[in-house]
C-alpha cells in the first residue's frame, strides 16, 4: 500500500503503517550518522539537550556528497542503519518516531520501535542522486566540524521509503524471506 505522511510524525499518522508499505514523506528529516550519534549520546550523558527536539522526528542515516551548483545537497543515499544501533534505543525512548537507513537492525532496536510505537524505514541504497531530488532545502544545524556527518535539517517532498519495521513487531527483512524461500 502507498501512503503519504508528514514529518515530524504524529501518532495518528503512523498508527496504520505496516512493514512493506510504500511511504512518501513530506516535511522535515534530520540527518545523523555515527559521529553525530556519538556526540548526541555524550551530550545526553552530560545532562545536556540534544541539538534539536527529537520528539516526533525522523532521523535519516545519511552523509551527503557536496551539492552541485543550484542544488541544496549532493547525492543523499542511506547509510547502513546497524551502525547506529547502539544509540537508537535511547533516542527512541526520548521520543524519536522514525529512522531511515538501509539494512537490518538489532533486536534491541526492533524492541524499542515496538515499545515506542515508532517505525524504521528503508531508502533504496544506490539511489542517492535520485533521492537528493526530493530534498528541497538542507542546512547544517549542529556539529559542523564533522563535515558530511554534521547534523542537517532537511526539507523534503515526497521522499520515498519503505516501512521495514513497524510498531507491531513486523519486520520486512524477516517476512519477505519467507515469501521467496522454497524447500528443496
Rounded to the nearest angstrom, the distance between the terminal CA atoms is: 32 Å
The overall pLDDT average reads 93
Evaluate the radius of gyration.
16 Å
Main pleated-sheet profile: 5 strands, mixed, barrel
How many helices? The count is: 6
Regarding quaternary structure, what we see is single chain
Number of strands: 7
Polypeptide structure, described:
Helix content is 24%, strand content 27%. By secondary structure, it is an alpha/beta fold. The longest helix is centred in the first third of the chain and has 12 residues, at 34-45.
Entry keywords:
alpha/beta, five-stranded mixed barrel
Short description:
The protein is an alpha/beta fold and 184 residues long.
Please render the helix and strand layout as text.
Layout: E1 2-7, H1 11-14, E2 22-31, H2 34-45, E3 58-60, H3 88-93, E4 98-101, H4 107-115, E5 119-122, H5 128-132, E6 135-142, E7 151-165, H6 172-180
Parallel strand pairs: 1-2, 2-3, 3-4, 4-5
Antiparallel strand pairs: 2-7, 5-7, 6-7
Amino acid at each position: 500500500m502507498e501512503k503519504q505522511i508528514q514529518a515530524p510524525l504524529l501518532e495518528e499518522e503512523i498508527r496504520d503503517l505496516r512493514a512493506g508499505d510504500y511511504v512518501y514523506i513530506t516535511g522535515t528529516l534530520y540527518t545523523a550518522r555515527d559521529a553525530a550519534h556519538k556526540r548526541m549520546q555524550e551530550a545526553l550523558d552530560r545532562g545536556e539537550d540534544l541539538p534539536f527536539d527529537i520528539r516526533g522526528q525522523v532521523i535519516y542515516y545519511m552523509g551527503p556528497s557536496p551539492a552541485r551548483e543550484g542544488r541544496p545537497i549532493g547525492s543523499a543515499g542511506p547509510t547502513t542503519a546497524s551502525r547506529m544501533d547502539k544509540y537508537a534505543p535511547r533516542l527512541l525512548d526520548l521520543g524519536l518516531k522514525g529512522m531511515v537507513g538501509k539494512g537490518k537492525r538489532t533486536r534491541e532496536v526492533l524492541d524499542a520501535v515496538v515499545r515506542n510505537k515508532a517505525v524504521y524505514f528503508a531508502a533504496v541504497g544506490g539511489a542517492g542522486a535520485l533521492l537528493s531530488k526530493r530534498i528541497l532545502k538542507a542546512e547544517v544545524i549542529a556539529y559542523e566540524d564533522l563535515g558530511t556527518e554534521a547534523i542537517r535539517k532537511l526539507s523534503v517532498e515526497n521522499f520515498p521509503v519503505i516501512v521495514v519495521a513497524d510498531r507491531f513487531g513486523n519486520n520486512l527483512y524477516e517476512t519477505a524471506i519467507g515469501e521467496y524461500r522454497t524447500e528443496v
